[in-house]
């Protein structure tokens, strides 16, 4: 069990490294080079591979090299490709060219997204239902640690390391994270013989019901946090305060919430976890409504930011665990990726329109709408969660969403 957790934790850590640099460090670097806020905002388009990875997920499910294993035959080449791109950025002067850097970021996101497809498929394949809750907490935690190092620690050391040193460090860390998968022997896949091939996830009975639940569940929280950074700036916090609050306190709280939530999912059941942790999202987002009405002190903002990220981590771990349960072995990478892409698209769109809401309604009105959306998510978790007779493939859990293990 420990070896499985170390393996998956290292792989999700490797994904968080470039994404943390892309989301946290790159905007700062571009701003210091004189780029406008609008131009910096457009860099979010570089993350498109994460939203579209469901397109090539069936290829990752179908093809593998028997000697390496079904998943390792994709994971190892992607890890190597990431190291090569990062090493090239470290050694060649192209990193000083912003257009070249943008291209490299797209390639890195494409590589990491493809590795993520295979890693998610491996997780579904090797994890028994009773371990999925904690493993998904570990997934979120490992990814967040990678983001903290890639976007926080290395940004703080950027002046000392320089551009080349920063990318060299990313390359070394990515290479080290490949050691556990190199030491892992993947069990051979036994094809499931059936008269008809397994249909695509979206063509199965009840699939769109699951997609609706997934889309609704995290949209309200993303709608709220899309305006969290501007809200904190308008509370007269310095850039260092905002960075410390979200990049350190928030990330650590979210990581702990994911671990706690993941551990509780197995004990209380999937459906109860989605509903209960969803209520936590309602309460914490509603807290921002209160803070928007008063003039909060810095400690109040720190504490509530940590509480909200903790609740978000718990809800995320519960949702990801359900997404694993709703995937079948033959097409696990595709099934999970379709659901994960739905999360990315839903939260991305919610964050995109959040600025218009805050501008029209003010922060208090905006956070109130977000809290209402979170209430809708709780209702959706209770109403749309699959039950016996719904026609949804749900082999690993009973009607309450409690693992049979």
Q: Tags for this entry?
A:
single chain; 405 residues; mainly alpha; Growth Hormone, Chain: A
Strand-helix topology:
Elements: H1 2-32, H2 37-42, H3 48-52, H4 57-62, H5 72-91, H6 98-126, H7 129-156, H8 158-176, H9 179-182, H10 207-225, H11 228-234, H12 239-268, H13 270-293, H14 298-325, H15 332-384
Q: Which class do the helix and strand fractions yield? A: mainly alpha
CATH top level of the largest domain is Mainly Alpha
Q: Calculate Rg over CA atoms.
A: 21 Å
CATH architecture heading of the largest domain: Up-down Bundle
- What characterizes the major β-sheet? none
Give the beta-strand count: 0
Helicity level: over 70%
Q: Which of globular, elongated, flat, extended, rod-shaped describes the shape? A: globular
Task: Offer a concise description of the structure.
The protein has 15 helices and no strands.
What does this structure look like?
This protein has helices at 2-32, 37-42, 48-52, 57-62, 72-91, 98-126, 129-156, 158-176, 179-182, 207-225, 228-234, 239-268, 270-293, 298-325, 332-384. The protein contains 15 helices and no strands. Helix 1 runs parallel beside helix 7, helix 5 packs antiparallel against helix 6 (98-126) and helix 13 packs across helix 15. It folds into two domains: 1-185, MFS general substrate transporter like domains (Growth Hormone, Chain: A), CATH 1.20.1250.20; 201-388, Up-down Bundle (Growth Hormone, Chain: A). The radius of gyration is 21 Å and the shape is globular. By secondary structure, it is mostly helical.
């Amino acid at each position: 069990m420990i070896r499985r957790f170390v393996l998956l934790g290292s792989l999700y850590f490797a994904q968080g490294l470039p994404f943390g640099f892309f989301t946290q460090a790159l905007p700062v670097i571009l701003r210091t080079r004189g780029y406008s806020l609008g131009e910096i905002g457009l860099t979010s388009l570089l993350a498109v591979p994460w939203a579209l990875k469901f397109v090539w997920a069936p290829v990752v499910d179908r093809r593998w090299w028997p000697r390496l294993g079904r998943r390792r035959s994709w994971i190892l080449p992607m890890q190597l490709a990431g190291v090569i791109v990062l090493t090239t950025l470290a050694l060649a002067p192209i990193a000083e060219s912003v257009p070249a850097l943008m291209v490299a970021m797209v390639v890195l996101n494409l590589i990491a997204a493809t590795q993520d497809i295979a890693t998610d498929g491996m997780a579904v394949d090797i994890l028994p239902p009773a371990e999925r809750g904690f493993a998904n907490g570990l997934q979120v935690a490992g990814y967040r640690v990678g983001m903290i190092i890639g976007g926080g620690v290395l940004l703080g050391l950027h002046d000392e390391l320089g551009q080349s040193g920063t990318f060299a460090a990313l390359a070394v860390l990515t290479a080290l994270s490949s050691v556990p998968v190199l030491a892992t022997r993947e069990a051979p896949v036994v094809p499931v013989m059936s008269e008809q091939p397994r249909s695509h996830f979206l063509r199965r009975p009840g699939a769109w019901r699951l997609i609706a639940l997934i889309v609704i569940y995290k949209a309200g929280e993303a709608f709220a946090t899309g305006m969290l950074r501007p809200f904190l700036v308008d509370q007269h916090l310095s850039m260092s305060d905002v960075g410390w609050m979200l990049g350190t306190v928030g990330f650590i709280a979210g990581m702990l919430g994911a671990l706690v939530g993941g551990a509780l999912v197995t004990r209380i059941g999937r459906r109860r976890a989605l509903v209960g942790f969803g209520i936590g999202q309602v309460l914490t987002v509603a807290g921002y409504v209160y803070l928007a009405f008063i003039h909060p002190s810095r400690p109040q903002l720190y504490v509530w930011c940590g509480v909200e990220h903790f609740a978000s981590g718990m809800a995320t771990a519960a949702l990801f665990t359900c997404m694993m349960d709703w995937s079948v072995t033959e097409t696990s990478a595709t099934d999970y990726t379709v659901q994960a892409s739905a999360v990315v698209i839903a939260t991305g769109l919610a964050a995109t329109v959040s600025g218009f809401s805050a501008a029209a309604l003010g922060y208090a009105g905006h956070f109130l709408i977000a809290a209402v959306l979170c209430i809708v998510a709780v209702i959706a978790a209770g109403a749309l969660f699959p039950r016996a007779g719904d026609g949804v493939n749900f082999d690993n859990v009973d009607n309450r969403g409690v693992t049979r293990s």
